[in-house]
Structure formats: C-alpha cells, structure tokens
Amino acid sequence: MSEAKKINLKRVPTKEQDPKVRAKNFNEVNYGYDIAEASEESQRCLFCKKPQCVIGCPVAINIPGFIAEIAKGDLVAAYRILTESNVLPAVCGRVCPQETQCEELCVLSKKGESVSIGKLERFVGDWAIKQGLSKEAVPTPRIGKKVAIVGSGPSAIACAHDLARAGVDVTIFEALHTAGGVLKYGIPNFRLPNEVVDIELEKLTRMGVKIELNKVVGRIFTIPDIMGKLRYDAAFIGTGAGTPKFMGIPGEGLNGMLSANEFLTRINLMEAYKFPNVDTPVVVGKGVAVIGAGNTAMDAVRTAKRLGSEHAMIVYRRTEKEAPARVEELHHAMEEGIEFWWLTAPVKIFGDENGWVKSMECIKMELGPPDESGRRRPVEIKGSNFVMDVDMVICALGTSSNPIVAQTTPGLKTNKWGYIETDEETMMTSIPGVFAGGDIVTGAATVISAMGAGRKAASGILKYLGV
Questions:
Q1: pLDDT tier at 2 (50, 70, 90 boundaries)?
Q2: What is the DSSP letter of 109?
Q3: Is 275 helix (H, G, I), strand (E, B) or coil?
Q4: DSSP 379-424
C-alpha cells in the first residue's frame, strides 16, 4: 500500500432505521450514503491497475472507473460508466450479494474491510433517479428487426436494454399485471422499494421497448406462434424459476401452510400489507415458522414480523454458518427479533379440527461430512423429536423451473430438472432464433447473474440477426 495515500481500513457505515421501529413498518431499512459519505468511501479505493473486483462482477462493471468519478465529484460520469454495464444500478446496489462477488475480491479486504462497492453503486443509482437522468433515455434509430422477450425480470430487462440500444424493436410479454418479475413479487419494500424498480423500468419504455402485461406465453400464444404467425425475428425466454419446492412431509396440505413465493407475492405485488386499504387479504399467524435460511426465507420471516407475528421463526437444518442468506440480511433479521432454530428439521405438521395448522413436530440435527453442495450434511439425532407451537408454516426451500413454455414449445431441449439448455457462448436454445437466460437456464441465482445472462443473450441475438 502506497505511503502517499493513507487508506482507512474501515468502511464508512450507512445509517439504518432503528430495529424496534422498522420491525413494524415496510419502509426501507438502509438509508444509503449521502454525498459526503459516498465521497469519503470512494477515497478508500486503491484504483488498482488490474482490478480483481471487476472479475467478481457478473456484468463486468468498470468498478474503479465509476468510483474514481465519485471521488472527483463527477456523478454524471459515474452514472454513465455504471450504466454501460448495468441498467439497474439502484436495484443491484441494494440486492446483489457484493460480499461474495466484487467486494470479496477487493484488495483492501486482505488487510481490512473491502470498499463498499454495493453502497456506492446504490448511491449513484439513487442520485441519478433524483436528478432525472434515467429520463434522458431515448430510442435508438431502428434497424428493422424485432425480438420478443418472455418475462420481465432481471435477465429480460438486461436483454431488452442491450437490444433496444442496438436499434432492435423489442416487445416484452409479461404474465402478471405489472412488470419487474422477481424484483416486484419476490423482494419486500423494506429491502427494495417498488418505486425504485418502476423508475428503473421506465428507462426501457423511454428507449422504445413495448411491455405487454397479462400475456401468459404458453397459454395465450406460444413460442412457435411468436416465431411464426407473429413474425418476430428472434425470441428470448427469461421466465425465471418460480415453481416452489416443498418438504414432502405429512400435513403440508393444511390451511396456514404455504410457499414463500405465494406469501411474498401477496404482500409485495398485491400490496396485502396495506389491507384493508387494498383488496388483497393476508392472514398471519401468531407463531410463524419459515423453513429455510436463504434470502427469501429472511424476506418472508421479516415480513411476518412486520405484519404482527408474535413469534416469527427461522427453522433450518444446518447452522448459521451454512445459511445461504446474505450476512446483512441475517444481521437485520436478528436485530429485528427473529427467532432462530438452527439444526432443526420439520418432520410433521399437525392441524386442528378445522384443518388449520396448530403445531409442528421437529427433530434436532447434527452436521456430518460435506455433501455435493460443499456444506456439511445434516444428520438426524434419533429420539430428539419435539413439538413446536405454530399456526403458520412458510416453505422457503428454493424453486424449480416454470414448465409452461417448455411444455408448449416442441423441440426445446431441457435438462432433467426442466431447465432450458443453451449454448454457453450465445445462449441460443435447441431452436434456431430462440434464446434463453437467467434462472430458467441456471436455476435460482442472483439478480446480477441473471442480468449477465441477459446481456450475453442480447449479444448472441445481435450476432444471429447479423447486426
């Protein structure tokens, strides 16, 4: 480290809502940097000649470049650099797991804390929204090609952006009544405000992208229809992996037993947390057990807490160390009074005389050797069964592929799990002119990884179109 530049090994912290206050509202937890804090944090960057942080970014953002502009006070230039690679900086700055991607490879992390790349990205994205920079997007001259995109989540957004920027006529077909995919139905307002997603999406429409809602591809019309009678030159499938997984134990058919997908969709997309001011009802038990320990589990349990659950619990068969959730999300959940039952696995759910969940039998676990995921395999401790009083159980055990498009597209190759097979370089499927990317190809992954796949697919599509 150069002596000419003294570097603070501690990152600049961000302000947050008080845990006791935020556990009762849906306002954003983290306030983000103000301009002085962002400037101070940007000065910590070493501006490496061979930046390792860029290698850790799925869309290869010029990280030292945009941080250098913050340090110089040129936020317009910082925004321009960011959006060359990432059309959703205000979103990704909030929800991407930077600690296991770009920040993990930051050189500063060898001696202290890495540069807070995610918080700086969010700062620039938020600043640009306040300044109206996203409204500067305009259509590129058209080149006479048109592409259909199925879905409107992160991979679809990234693909649509790059195609529109190249002059392609793009139409997004979204099955739901609003665009945004998992960004809108899967992530609560306290972590990603809806208005941030909506403003970022406006950039696409300003670029000329058409978004058609309530269009279930595979039911209203199919991929063969898109490539045939609708006369699109290419198509991109970005439908995600939204089919929930369950435990396969007795009692899963009881009332009060549901998937995290259903629970969060009701709350986030249909705004049930505003009931009775909206028409979507939501029932939350006094004792809510969320099964799993990923980000979706944290979103579900923290939402249940905010909606009045007296005992909002995480039940997970491994330990905190193996939990897939972001460290920040675990930390926030603990601060908010979430109860954690580590090394615990459900074996049966009991119902009352009316068919509603009343309790759950669990068994204690211990960790054995690592399994195929690299985490130590949980093993039951015989005779350790006990019953937990709960009146609601939410499954957050991951998702699997949405089968509708594959089932209605003859010749579309999928693997044994139902995910679409693609060429690694172009993202083209087994059908010429039909491309795919994101969770429908890889299985559930991160927002930024899906965006990287969407950008790669856009490049493949442009080559296919001869652009």
A1: very low
A2: G
A3: coil
A4: EE-TT--EEEE-SEEEE-S-EE---HHHHTSTT--B-TTSPBP--T
For residue 20, give the CATH number of its domain. 1.10.1060.10
Query: What are the distances in angstroms from CA 290 to CA 113, 131, 354, 390, 396?
Result: 32, 40, 22, 10, 7
Regarding whether 372 and 262 lie in a shared domain, the answer is: yes
Our count of domains for the chain comes to 3
- Say what the pLDDT of residue 4 is: 53
Would you give the DSSP letter of residue 466?
Answer: T
pTM score > 0.90 for this model? yes
CA angle, 275 then 276 then 281, to 5° = 55
pLDDT for the residue numbered 434: 98
Region at 145 (left for phi over 0; alpha for psi -120 to 50; beta for the rest): beta
CATH number at residue 423: 3.50.50.60
pLDDT digits (tens, 9 = 90+) for 291-318: 999 999 999 999 999 999 999 999 999 9
Are residues 387 and 255 part of one domain? Answer: yes
Residues with Cβ within 8 Å of 245's Cβ and at least 6 positions away in sequence, in order, are 395, 397, 398, 399, 400
| Boundaries of domain holding 234 | 146-242+401-465
88 and 178 together in one domain:
no
DSSP string covering 355-388, please?
SBEEEEEEEEEEEEEE-TTSSEEEEE-TT--EEE
Query: 29-76 pLDDT, tens per residue?
Result: 999 999 999 999 999 999 999 999 999 999 999 999 999 999 999 999
Cβ atoms within 10 Å, residue 135: 13
Q: What is the DSSP string of 44-92?
A: T----SS-HHHHT-TT---HHHHHHHHHHT-HHHHHHHHHHH-S-HHHH
Length of the chain: 467
Pair (258, 392) in one structural domain = yes
Q: Are 402 and 153 in contact (CB under 8 A)?
A: no
Residues 382 and 431 in one domain: no
Distance CA(205)–CA(190), nearest Å, equals 26
CB 413 within 8 A of CB 429: yes
Please give the biggest Cα pair distance in the chain.
Answer: 74
Q: What is the DSSP string of 113-141?
A: PPP-HHHHHHHHHHHHHHHTGGGG--PPP
| Backbone torsions φ then ψ of 273, nearest 5 degrees | -65, -10
* Main-chain dihedrals φ then ψ at residue 84, nearest 5 degrees: -65, -30
Q: Is residue 9 part of a domain?
A: no
The verdict on residue 416 lying in a domain is yes
